[in-house]
Design a protein that fits this description.
single chain, alpha/beta, Phosphorylase Kinase, domain 1, Rossmann fold, 7-stranded mixed sheet, 6-stranded mixed barrel, 36 strands, binds ligand MGD, binds iron/sulfur cluster, binds molybdenum atom, nitrate reductase (cytochrome), nitrate reductase (cytochrome) activity, 4Fe-4S, Mopterin_OxRdtase_4Fe-4S_dom
C-alpha cells in the first residue's frame, strides 16, 4: 500500500512542501505539495530527485561505529556502547580540563528540535558556549546586520513580497540556481508585468544575471562601494524619504557625511562598472514604489560581510523601502533550517530565542527557565577559531553533527590537521562517504530526510512540519534522540542531576513545546503555535503570539523597530577590499559557489546520475582572454595556487566571468576528486563582527600543469558501491574526478606517469580482473595499459591508461549497453574520424526530461523559439530549473545570427 506523507524538502531555505510517497518501508516518489504556501506544488531539479537519493542504503551510515585507537579501523557496536563511549569521554574531558575543552559543530540542516537539544546540552548542561554551526559560514553576517540595524534578527519580508515588488535587486545571489522556486515565482511575476525591473549585482553573469534588466558585474568584494555610491546619488538627488528618516531612524547624518566621498563616478570606478549603470540602479531602486532586495552569499561570505549587509539596509531605510508590501531587505537563507538554528540560539555567540550571551539579564532568565545555576558569560569559539583551538589542543574533543567541515571550511587542510590532532572526534552523519567521516573515533548513524520528525523555519520565518514517511534505515536514529541519550548520560556522570531532569524529552513535540516557552514575549514569540495547530492549519510564520489567529507576514510595518527606542539604526559602512590581497604573485581573484543540481559536499545529490549531467566534472571558469594569454583551452588542467594551498582543475573559458576573476563550484571534494576541492585554497579571514569567513574571495595564480599520462574508465554496476571502492585511489593522482551515471561509474584521471601499483588497485576496485572475459593490452615502453570486460558481446567496463583516444567510443558503448559491432580487438584501436580525445558526455540541460544541450541547440538552429522548445522537446516543462538557461540559449543564438 502506498502512503503519502506531507513534509518539507531537506535542501534549501525556500522550504518547499513535499508529498512523500512510500510503500513497503521505501520512499517511492516525491511531489510538490500544492497546499504549501512557499511553493504551491512547485519543486526544483533537486527536490524532484529526492526520492532517488533515498532509494538505496548503500553508503548510508547504518550502525554505530567505534575505534579504540587511532591506528585501528572503526568497528560496528551496539548503541549503548557508542552512547556510553561518547558520554564518558566528554564528561572526563570536562572534569579534567573544564567545559571549554569540548566543542560542538552543528548544522543549519538540523531540525529545530535537534538543534535545541544540542544547544541545551552545551550551554545548559556542560556550561560551554563552544557550540557553533555551519551557519557561521553562511548567515552570520546577515544576522549581525539585522541586529545592528533593526535591533533583532530575522527578515522583515515575506514571499508574498516576491509578487508585489516593482524593483528587484539581487545582490550576491544566484537565485536561479540556489533558490529556484523563489526565482520561479519572481519570473512569473515579471512575465505577467514586464515593467518590473531586475537589477543583479554579481561579478559573474549567472543565469540570474542573464535575466536582469541591469547586470552590475562588479569586481568581487566591492559591494559597499556600490551601495554607498547609490546612496550618495539618492541623497543628492533628493530621492530619500526625510520624514521617515527623521521619525524612525538614528544615525543618518553620520552616514551622509560618510558617503559624501562616494560619488557615483568614484564608486563606479572602484566597482569596475559604468557610472550610468550605478545611477540607473540607484534611481530604479530609490524611485520605485516597492523595491525588494534579495541577497545571499555574495554579501555574507566576506571579511566585511556585515558592512555589505548594512550598506544595503541603509538604502532601504533611507528610501523607506521597508515595512510595506513588496519592499525590504530579504536575506535568502541557504539551508533548510538556518532560521530555526538562529531561533534556538544555536551559535557560539547567541543564546536561545534571540537572547544574547553578553547580556546578564538574558543569561539569568534562560538559566532560570532551564533550571540550571548559571550560564557561561564567555562567548564560545566561532567555527574558524574552534578548529584552530582543536589544532592547538586547547579544545580536546569535538562532536560534529550534520555538516562536513573537512570539506566546507575555508583552508580545509588546516581543518583536517585539527581533526587529526584532536583527542576525540565524534561524527553524527547520515552517509558514510564524506571527507569528515574518516576522522571519526565514533560514528553515530543519523536518521535522514524522510525518516525524521520535527520542524524547520524557511527564509520568510515560516515554520513547517517535517514528517517521517518511513522508518529509519538500519540502526540509524534521529539526531535529537542521540543528543538526548548522550546528554542524560553526561548529566549522570557529571553528577549534575537536578530535581527536574534537563532532558526529559521523549518526542520532538516535547522539545518544541519547551522551545516555544522560551520564545514567549520575545520578538520571535511563537506562544500560539503547536504541532496540533501546524498539523491542522499548515505552516505558519513567526511571530505567532498566544491567542492570535495568524503569524506576522511583514515586520516593522508601523515603523517601530526592535531597538530600545524603536528606531532603526543607520551604520556608516566602510568600504574595504577583500582580505587576501592581489599582487604580482597572486594576481587573480577566485570566487566559488553553487551549481544548479548539486548540494554542498554531494553526499546526497552525488548519489544520482541525473544530477551529474548538467555539470559532469569540476571546472575552473576563466575569461577567454585570460585563458588565451596563458595558452589555455577548454579542458586543460591547471594548478590553482593560493597562499594556503593548491588544487588541480580543468579550465572552462567563458565570458560569464570578468577578466581577472575565476570561479569554481564548491561541491567537489575528496569523495569525487583528487583533492579536498576549492577550499584547499580559500581564505579563513573573517568579518570582525559576524566572524564569518571570506569564502567568496581568494587571491590565486594559475599555472599550466603537464600531466601526459591520462586515464579514462567506466564500470557498470552499483555505482555507489563502485564509488566507495575507487574513492581511496583518487588522491594518488594529480588530477582525478568521478561521476555517477545511474548504474555506471565514470573516472577520469591524469598524472605525469602511473603511480606505483595504482592500476592494479584500480582493476581490483572496478572488479576488472584478468580472465577470459577480459581483453588486455599492455605496452610498458609507451606506458599503455588497457582493459575491457565483456559479458556476451557487451562491454561492462573498461580502463584506458596512458592515452585515452578511444575513450568516447568506449564510454558510448558502455552507456548504450548494446553489443559491440566488430572484432573485440578493435576496441582498443577504434577511433572514428573526427573524434576528439576526451569529450565528456553530452551535457544535459533539462534534468527532468533528460534533454541535452545538443538537442536544444539543434532545435534552435532549426528556428525553434522558447515556447516551441517546450512543446517539441518537452524541456523546461516540469520543474522549470532549466528555463533560464533555455532562454539564454535562444537569446545567444538570436544575437549570434
Ligand atoms: N543548487 C544548490 N542550491 C543551494 C545550495 C547548494 O548547495 N546547491 N546551498 C544552499 C545554501 S546553504 C546557500 S548559503 C545558498 C547560497 O546561495 P547563493 O548565495 O545565491 O549562491 P552562491 O553560488 O554561493 O553565491 C552567489 C553569488 O555570489 C557571487 N559573488 C561572489 N563574490 C561576490 C561579491 O563580492 N559581491 C557580489 N555581489 N556577489 C559575489 C557569485 O558569483 C555567485 O554567483 O544556496 C542554497 N541553495
Ligand atoms: N568555497 C566555499 N565553501 C563553502 C561555501 C561556498 O560558497 N564556497 N558555502 C558555505 C556554506 S553557505 C555552507 S551552508 C556550507 C555547507 O557545508 P556542509 O554543512 O559541510 O555541507 P553538507 O554537504 O550539506 O553537509 C551536511 C552533512 O550532513 C549529512 N546529513 C544529511 N542529513 C542528515 C541528518 O539528518 N542528520 C545528520 N546528522 N547528518 C545528515 C550529509 O550527509 C552531509 O555530509 O559550506 C560552506 N562552504
Ligand atoms: S527550491 Fe528546490 S531545493 Fe529549495 S526547497 Fe524547493 S525543491 Fe527544495
Ligand atoms: Mo549556506
Amino acid at each position: 500500500m502506498t502512503t503519502v506523507t506531507r513534509s518539507t524538502c531537506c535542501y534549501c531555505g525556500v522550504g518547499c512542501g513535499v508529498l512523500i510517497e512510500a510503500s513497503d518501508g521505501r520512499i517511492t516518489g516525491v511531489r510538490g505539495d500544492p497546499d504549501h504556501p512557499a511553493n504551491r506544488g512547485l519543486l526544483c531539479s533537486k527536490g524532484m530527485a529526492l526520492a532517488d537519493t533515498a532509494r538505496s542504503t548503500t553508503g548510508r551510515a547504518l550502525q554505530p561505529e567505534l575505534r579504540v585507537h587511532r591506528d585501528m579501523p572503526r568497528e560496528a557496536v551496539e548503541w549503548p556502547v557508542a552512547l556510553d563511549a561518547v558520554a564518558e569521554r566528554f564528561a572526563r574531558i570536562v572534569e579534567q580540563h573544564g567545559p571549554d575543552a569540548v566543542a560542538f559543530y552543528v548544522s543549519g540542516q538540523l531540525l529545530t528540535e535537534d538543534y535545541y537539544v544540542f544547544n541545551k546540552l552545551a550551554k545548559g548542561l556542560i556550561g560551554t558556549n563552544n557550540i557553533d554551526t555551519n551557519s557561521r559560514l553562511c548567515m552570520s553576517s546577515a544576522v549581525t546586520a539585522y541586529k545592528k540595524a533593526f535591533g533583532a534578527d530575522g527578515p522583515p519580508t515575506c514571499y508574498d513580497d516576491l509578487e508585489r515588488a516593482r524593483t528587484v535587486l539581487f545582490a550576491g545571489s544566484n537565485a536561479a540556481w540556489a533558490h529556484p522556486v523563489v526565482f520561479r515565482r519572481l519570473e512569473a511575476a515579471k512575465a505577467a508585468d514586464p515593467s518590473i525591473r531586475w537589477i543583479v549585482v554579481d561579478p559573474r553573469r549567472t543565469d540570474t544575471a542573464a535575466m536582469a534588466d541591469l547586470h552590475l558585474a562588479i569586481e568581487p568584494g566591492t559591494d559597499v562601494a556600490l551601495f554607498n555610491g547609490m546612496l550618495h546619488h539618492l541623497i543628492w538627488e533628493g530621492l530619500v524619504d526625510r520624514a521617515y528618516i527623521d521619525e524612525h531612524t538614528e544615525g543618518f547624518d553620520a552616514l551622509k557625511s560618510a558617503v559624501r566621498t562616494f560619488t557615483p563616478a568614484i564608486a563606479a570606478e572602484l566597482c569596475g562598472i559604468a557610472e550610468e549603470d550605478l545611477i540607473q540602479a540607484a534611481v530604479w531602486f530609490g524611485a520605485s514604489d516597492a523595491a525588494l532586495s534579495l541577497y545571499s552569499m555574495g554579501l555574507n561570505q566576506s571579511s566585511h560581510g556585515t558592512d555589505k549587509n548594512l550598506a544595503l539596509i541603509n538604502l532601504h531605510l533611507a528610501t523607506r523601502q521597508i515595512g510595506k508590501p513588496g519592499a525590504g531587505p530579504f536575506s535568502l537563507t541557504g539551508q533548510p533550517n538556518a532560521m530555526g538554528g538562529r531561533e534556538v540560539g544555536g551559535m557560539a555567540t547567541m543564546l536561545a530565542a534571540h537572547r544574547d550571551i553578553g547580556n546578564a539579564a538574558d543569561r539569568e532568565e534562560l538559566a532560570q527557565l532551564w533550571g540550571v545555576q548559571a550560564l557561561s558569560a564567555r562567548p564560545g569559539l566561532p567555527a574558524v577559531e574552534m578548529f584552530e583551538a582543536l589544532r592547538a589542543g586547547t579544545i580536546k574533543a569535538v562532536w560534529i553533527v550534520c555538516t562536513n567541515p573537512a570539506h566546507s571550511m575555508p583552508d580545509n587542510a588546516r581543518v583536517r590537521e585539527a581533526l587529526d590532532k584532536a583527542e576525540f572526534v565524534v561524527v553524527q552523519e547520515a552517509f558514510t562517504q564524506t571527507d569528515t567521516v574518516p576522522y571519526a573515533d565514533v560514528l553515530l548513524p543519523a536518521a535522514s530526510w524522510g525518516e525524521k520528525d520535527g520542524t524547520v523555519t524557511n527564509s520568510e520565518r515560516r515554520i513547517s512540519r517535517v514528517r517521517a514517511a518511513i522508518d529509519a534505515q538500519g540502526d540509524a536514529k534521529p539526531d535529537w534522540w542521540i543528543a538526548v541519550q548522550i546528554a542524560r548520560r553526561i548529566e549522570q556522570r557529571l553528577d549534575r542531576q537536578r530535581e527536574a531532569p534537563l532532558f526529559a524529552f521523549d518526542t520532538p513535540e516535547a522539545i518544541f513545546n519547551e522551545h516555544r516557552r522560551l520564545t514567549e514575549n520575545r520578538d520571535l514569540d511563537i506562544g500560539g503555535l503547536s504541532y496540533a495547530l501546524l498539523d491542522e492549519r499548515g505552516p505558519q510564520q513567526w511571530p505567532f503570539r498566544a491567542g492570535s489567529e495568524q503569524g506576522e507576514a511583514r515586520r516593522y510595518t508601523d515603523g517601530r523597530f526592535a531597538t530600545d527606542d524603536g528606531r532603526a539604526r543607520f551604520h556608516a559602512a566602510r568600504y574595504q577590499p577583500p582580505a587576501d590581497a592581489i599582487n604580482a604573485r597572486f594576481p587573480l581573484r577566485l570566487t566559488s559557489g553553487r551549481l544548479r543540481d548539486q548540494w554542498h559536499g554531494m553526499s546526497r545529490t552525488g548519489r544520482i546520475g541525473r544530477l551529474f549531467m548538467h555539470a559532469p566534472e569540476p571546472t575552473l571558469d576563466i575569461h577567454p582572454g585570460d585563458a588565451a594569454r596563458r595558452g589555455l583551452s577548454e579542458g586543460d588542467l591547471v594548478r590553482v595556487i593560493s597562499r594556503r594551498g593548491e588544487l588541480v582543475l580543468p579550465v572552462r573559458p567563458t565570458d560569464d566571468v570578468r577578466s581577472g576573476t575565476l570561479f569554481a563550484p564548491m561541491h567537489w571534494n575528496a569523495q569525487f576528486m583528487s583533492s579536498g576541492g576549492v577550499n584547499e585554497v580559500t581564505d579563513p579571514a573573517v568579518d570582525p563582527d559576524s566572524l564569518q569567513p571570506e569564502l567568496k574571495h581568494a587571491a590565486v595564480r594559475i599555472e599550466p600543469v603537464a600531466l601526459p599520462w591520462h586515464v579514462a574508465a567506466a564500470r557498470r554496476g552499483d555505482a555507489l558501491a563502485l564509488q566507495a571502492a575507487v574513492q581511496p585511489l583518487l588522491g594518488a593522482c594529480r588530477y582525478a574526478a568521478l561521476a555517477i551515471e545511474d548504474d555506471l561509474l565514470i573516472l577520469r584521471a591524469a598524472d605525469t606517469a602511473a603511480p606505483a601499483g595504482w592500476l592494479d588497485r584500480l582493476y581490483a576496485a572496478l572488479d576488472l580482473p584478468s580472465g577470459d572475459d577480459t581483453l588486455e593490452y599492455r605496452d610498458a615502453r609507451r606506458g599503455l595499459d588497457k582493459r575491457a570486460l565483456w559479458r556476451e558481446n557487451v562491454i561492462h567496463g573498461f580502463v584506458l591508461a596512458g592515452e585515452v583516444r578511444q575513450a568516447d567510443t568506449l564510454f558510448a558503448a558502455v552507456r548504450s549497453g548494446e553489443p559491440w559491432r566488430g572484432s573485440r580487438l578493435s576496441v582498443f584501436a577504434a577511433r572514428r574520424a573526427g573524434e576528439t580525445a576526451s569529450a565528456p558526455r553530452e551535457r544535459i540541460v533539462c534534468s527532468c526530461m533528460q534533454i541535452s544541450e545538443t538537442q536544444i541547440q539543434a532545435a534552435i538552429a532549426r528556428g525553434a523559439s522558447m515556447p516551441e522548445l517546450k512543446t517539441s522537446l518537452g524541456c523546461g516543462t516540469v520543474c522549470g530549473s532549466c528555463v533560464t538557461e533555455l532562454r539564454r540559449m535562444c537569446e545567444t543564438a538570436a544575437i549570434g545570427g
